[in-house]
Design the sequence.
């Protein structure tokens, strides 16, 4: 043991090679372990870029996922967007607490049935083939008689405009009520499902 220590005391101290004097301005000399870390990081990034390029080339242009429109980027993280329609009003919360899902569903179906199916050709009183035309769109009566009537009474025009505006307003209200009832029904059903799961777990 003492002999080995004596031999070691006579051995030359080995130092790592330092940066040559004319390259001192470049900092410490890079060792192999430093190069290995740098090389591994470089190749990892290159492989990631190659995989992304391949994914972009193989992508179907008609590909669609609902997450594309239902999520947004916040601070670099994808989060699900909160639609304004899903935000419950105080009236919706009150109905949800007091009413049964069957009643809500019945009201929603009633509102949906009350909404007339909108037929653009019937609304414009023209042939279906002429619906896409934005000018020179004759009515069915004009097509049948091949004659254009004179100017209508301004009072009649104003009356018809008021009736049309009222009908649009009523239709908009029914659509809004139907959407709210649908949201309430979904929330009630979700709450019931959660209650059932809790009972099963207990």
Sequence:
């Amino acid at each position: 043991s003492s002999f080995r220590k004596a031999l070691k005391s006579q051995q030359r101290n080995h130092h790592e090679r330092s940066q040559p004097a004319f390259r001192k301005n470049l900092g410490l000399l890079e060792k192999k372990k430093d190069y290995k870390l740098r090389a591994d990081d470089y190749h990892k990034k290159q492989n990631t870029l190659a995989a992304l390029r391949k994914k972009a080339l193989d992508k179907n242009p008609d590909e669609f996922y609902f997450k594309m429109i239902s999520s947004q980027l916040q601070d670099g993280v994808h989060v699900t967007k909160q639609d304004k329609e899903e935000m419950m009003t105080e009236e919706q919360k009150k109905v949800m607490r007091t009413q049964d899902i069957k009643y809500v569903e019945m009201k929603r179906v009633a509102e949906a049935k009350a909404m007339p199916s909108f037929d653009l050709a019937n609304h414009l009183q023209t042939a279906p083939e002429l619906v896409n035309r934005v000018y020179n769109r004759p009515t069915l009566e004009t097509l049948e008689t091949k004659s254009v009537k004179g100017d209508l009474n301004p009072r009649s025009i104003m009356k018809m405009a008021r009736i049309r505006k009222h009908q649009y307003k009523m239709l908009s209200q029914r659509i809004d009520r139907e959407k709210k009832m649908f949201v309430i029904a979904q929330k009630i059903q979700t709450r019931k499902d959660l209650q059932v799961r809790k009972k099963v777990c207990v």
In short: The beta strands are 71-74, 77-80. Residues 89-116 form one domain.
